[in-house]
Amino acid sequence: MSNKVCCVIVTYNIGTSFYNCFNSIVNQVDKIVIVDNGSDKETLSVLKDLNKNKKTHVIYNNSNLGIATALNKGIYYAIEKQYNWILTMDNDSEATKNMVNSMLRWFENSENKENVVSIFPEYIEKSTIKNRSECESKLIENNFEEIYFDNTSGNLIKAEIFNKIGKFNEDFFIDSVDHDFCLRIKQAGYRLVKVKGVKLLHSLGNTEIIKIGKKDIYCSNHSALRRYYINRNRHFMKDIYSDEKEYIK
Fold first, then answer.
1. HSE-CB for 149 with a 13 A CA cutoff
2. Which three-class secondary structure state does DSSP give residue 97?
3. For residue 3, what is the DSSP state?
């Protein structure tokens, strides 16, 4: 089986820090599709620069259409161009060295890959990292965990699954988009796994660590609008997946 990988990244007002995400993944995949959700001038200037790279294709939305709609535009492109795998990334995440290759190697060599269509790395909160040069994916052979769902960022997905269960649910706009997609994969009889030793540097909101005594408290610092969608979509999820409530946070 061919392992051509297309990475889909949605950008929104990320500015020059997007170079960190882009540079971390560009040499690990065959193509990067960037879908911009109506960003500011600084971000658009960065995208114009990155679009000079022959491995890059940028799709511009005139306004913020939401994460699901933007992801789906990238998915349509990847499927049309016949990529075998689609990697979804947040615009502020950073892939560690060998991340994609390690996940593909697990899939190629594992005896437990039957019906696996979605592969996840382990997440490292960026605010906790002291030395990024030491962050590298080192596959722990055949050591994995079967999961019900995880985050969109770093998810390596078999492209063919989108034709079987549909694409991301655009009614959610943002939040729960990833959990809804993963639960649909499970309900269709397919499997999702997290591969040990494979790492992605990730941020949950604008995470800040506050120390209270000897205890570290992690604060995501989400905006009021983001918290609205978090709570609204959580109720949607409980209604849609009434039989899976134990897996919905």
1. 21
2. strand
3. -
Q: HSE (CB half, 13 Å, CA atoms) of 249? A: 9
Hey, which bits of the chain come out as E strands?
Answer: 5-11, 31-37, 56-61, 85-90, 94-95, 116-125, 144-147, 155-158, 191-202, 208-212, 215-219
pLDDT value of position 73: 98
Reported residue count of the chain is 249
DSSP bridge partners of 51: none
Q: Which residue has the higher pLDDT, 171 or 70?
A: 70
Give pLDDT, residue 30: 98
> Which residues are registered as beta bridge partners of 31?
6
The three-state secondary structure class of 29 is: coil
The angle at the Cα of 249, spanning 69 to 233, to the nearest 5 degrees, equals 35
- DSSP helix, strand, coil percent of the chain (3-state; round to 5): 40, 30, 35
Max Cα separation, the chain?
Answer: 54
Instruction: Evaluate whether 94 touches 21 at the Cβ level (below 8 Å).
Output: yes
Taking the C-alpha atoms of residue 226 and residue 63, their distance in angstroms, rounded to an integer, is 17
